[in-house]
Amino acid sequence: MRKWRRRLGKAAIFGLLAVLVLLGIGAIYEQASVRKDRKSYTPSGKLYEVDGRKMHVYAGGQGDVTVVFASGWGTANPYVDFYPLYEKLAPHVKFAVYDRFGYGYSDTTDRKRDIDTITDEIHEALKASGQQPPYVFVAHSLGSLETIRYAQRYTDEVKGIVMVDGGSPEYYFDDTEKPPTGGWLSKLFIRTGLVRLLFQSDAAVENSRAARNGLKFVPDELKKIDRTAALLKLDNANMNDELRLSRTNAKVVLDGLKPLPIPLTILTADYFGKADKRWEEFEKAFASWSVQSKQVVVKNTEHYMHQYRPDLVAEEILALAYKR
């Protein structure tokens, strides 16, 4: 009996050592891959100094109005994500896609992700990049909070806001559950290269894009950028802090100016007929945030509706941009 115990003990020790060696090899593989990715992951737009760090803005188009894009939480590369929209808008309006710290090509920062800090940074980045207000903001998902707060603080700079399945401040404040984060296990999988190995599979990559309609309207070269961005930006401190502070940030917005004296268009996904009832109720009530508001339920779309119906979303943006 003792002999078997010794054998089992030795087997357990050798097994543990083997796991540690494999994890170590994986960590080296991950570090080498990250260094390689960073060399090829060059900014699509330009970097501007904001509070001592570099913040990315991609701008283009032509016209008298500037449309500014605010990405949703966890969208690794906004430049890729909003391509189906700004590609359609470019002949009619100027546009600017900014990357919050922790996203896209921007640095990470040590500053807390409270809503006033975020809007200060956006204001500074737009100014540094030469954008001219008034702006039409287009906000996806959690990006709704920063655009409303921007309009509260810099009212004269905002012509209107289009929400692309953006949540209302009441929705985010009502969400009292602790926001999920990756945790230590997620960090372990990332830092030991397990996630990167998984992304070598076409099936895994396609699955990661499923909620975004497979990036159907995005060129292949931008899909490669999206994959690299996901591996470089996954589970970073700024994204996690942004999510942790979402309820606190919503309260700040709720305590600010309401209703806004600007047009507000609320585009709501129908989730292919399976929308959550709570979400639908908050979206209907969202109209109270503006003296000129309308809601449009966009059929046959999910949360990233601009990846399903970029034509319709672009039409609504232009309608607001040139509204008198």
Automatic annotation (TrEMBL):
It comes from the Bacteria. SUPFAM superfamilies: alpha/beta-Hydrolases. The keyword Hydrolase applies. Keywords: Hydrolase. The keyword GTP-binding does not apply. GO terms for molecular function: hydrolase activity. Residues 67-315 form the AB hydrolase-1 domain. This is Alpha/beta fold hydrolase. It comes from Cohnella soli.
